[in-house]
Structure formats: structure tokens, C-alpha cells
Design goal:
There is one protein chain. The chain is an alpha+beta fold. It folds into two domains: 184 residues, 4-Layer Sandwich (Glutamine Phosphoribosylpyrophosphate, subunit 1, domain 1), CATH 3.60.20.10; 38 residues, no CATH class. It contains seven helices and ten strands. The strands form two sheets. It has a six-stranded antiparallel sheet, covered by helices on one side. Strands 3-4-5-6 form a four-stranded antiparallel sheet, covered by helices on one side. The N and C termini lie far apart (36 Å). 42% of the residues are buried.
Length: 237
């Protein structure tokens, strides 16, 4: 009932996007941790996979070893789908034998796409290709293009309802966390939210306290100047 993309750029930062004919798909499926990895639990999802999987990756287990441990004692494993993209190295995935067709996954260096209950394999194939074809653009733009391509290829075979986009850079908190929980046109609405976030939210977050600047920027004039410079930069791109 869902397909998702996990991506990693040259800096090791993560981008994640997910879509489904299921309410609030962005709430429990996708997880990430700075310097560790990203994962998505879907089909008959197991929300416990998120924190536990990231803990295992942080202990230097490979994605394959992490998946093996997560599903070992889970009696519902054959109804679940899980894919993991680590901070470094290749991704891994589990698509249970009882997942609803069409179901499957694509694993490449820095990229993992998986889905179930889809119109066909072209959904994840086109999702992956669109992401690769937009190399050089901002992560958010690439993820939106990937979702659009997957939907154009048929998407969730039951229809559309929810979508989400998350970006995790070099902070312990997310750089961007957008969700459309219930909408007739979730991809259009997700794009609208993304464009709105560029107006002030994304540049404002760059002014907040972080790992390399514990106090952030506190002077309102400096914050406003940074936002203006950010907007000028993306308009000129």
C-alpha cells in the first residue's frame, strides 16, 4: 500500500519520501538518525523497527544484519517490508513473501526504493530514475520529482491519499519534515508545502542552534538578512 525512497547525498545527508493510499503514512514509517542511517517500515508496518533498527546500525551492524535481527522474532515478518540505507555503504531490504503484489525493491549505492500494493514495478523504477536524473538539484526537489514519477507510473494501485518528505542533514533534528496526511491531491499539496517552506522556514532553521553553532543567530536583523540572502540564492539558481 506504500512506496518510499531513501537517498543519501555526497555529504552523507539523508532524504526520505513516502506515499500511500493510507492515512498519515509519514507518521510511523520513516525514521532516520544523523550519522547512522535511514529506514522505512511499510506494508503491515512495524513501528518498533525504527528506533531498534537505528540502534543496531549505530552499533556498527550492517543493514543486512540489522534486518535479520529485526525480523527474527517477528511472526509478522512475511507481511512486512523494510529497507535500510546506512550512513556509509550499500542499502538492504526485506520484502516479505506475504506482501501484496506488486511488491519489491531497488537497491543502489546511496539509494533505496521499495513498495508494495503498487500498480507494477515501473513505480519504483521510475521513482529511482527520476531521482538520479535530477542530480545536482536540492534534495527536496529530487525527492518530489521521484514521487511524481512513481505516481505517474501508477503509484499505489488503490489510489492516493497521503505523502511525506523528510530531510536530515548534519543536526540531530530534521532539516525538513513535511506531511500531507489526507488529501485528494497529496503530491500537489506536498509540493505547495515545500515551496512555502522555502519562503522563510528553511532559511530560518539555518539560524537555529545546532551542533556547530550552539547558540544560533539571535539578532533579528541578522536572521532577516540571512533569509534575504537565502531567497536571493535560490531565485538565482
Amino acid at each position: 500500500m506504500t512506496w518510499s525512497i531513501l537517498a543519501r547525498d555526497e555529504s552523507g545527508y539523508f532524504g526520505m519520501a513516502i506515499a500511500s493510499r493510507f492515512f498519515a503514512v509519514g507518521s510511523l514509517c520513516v525514521h532516520s538518525r544523523r550519522g547512522v542511517g535511514a529506514l522505512s517500515s511499510q506494508a503491515l508496518l512495524n513501528p518498533l523497527y525504527g528506533p531498534a533498527g537505528l540502534d543496531l546500525l549505530a552499533q556498527q551492524l550492517s543493514p543486512e544484519q540489522t534486518i535479520a535481527k529485526l525480523i527474527a522474532d517477528d511472526q509478522g515478518r512475511e507481511q512486512r517490508q523494510l529497507h535500510i540505507l546506512p550512513f556509509k555503504g550499500l542499502p538492504a531490504a526485506h520484502t516479505g513473501a506475504a506482501c501484496v503484489d506488486w511488491c519489491g525493491h531497488i537497491l543502489e549505492d546511496g539509494l533505496s526504493v521499495a513498495g508494495n500494493m503498487l500498480a507494477g514495478p515501473k513505480v519504483i523504477e521510475h521513482t529511482a530514475q527520476a531521482f538520479k536524473d535530477t542530480r545536482g538539484k536540492p534534495m527536496g526537489e529530487r525527492l518530489l520529482a521521484a514521487l511524481d514519477a512513481g505516481q505517474a507510473a501508477g503509484g499505489d494501485k488503490r489510489g492516493k491519499q497521503a505523502a511525506a518528505l523528510k530531510i536530515h542533514n548534519d543536526e540531530d533534528y530534521l532539516q525538513l519534515d513535511l506531511r500531507v496526511d489526507d488529501h485528494e491531491e497529496p503530491f500537489v499539496e506536498l509540493r505547495r508545502l515545500y515551496d512555502k517552506s522555502l519562503e522563510r522556514f528553511q532559511p530560518f532553521l539555518e539560524c537555529l542552534p545546532g551542533r556547530h553553532r550552539p547558540s544560533g543567530i539571535t539578532e533579528r536583523s541578522e536572521i532577516d538578512a540571512h533569509i534575504e540572502q537565502y531567497l536571493a540564492r535560490i531565485k538565482g539558481a
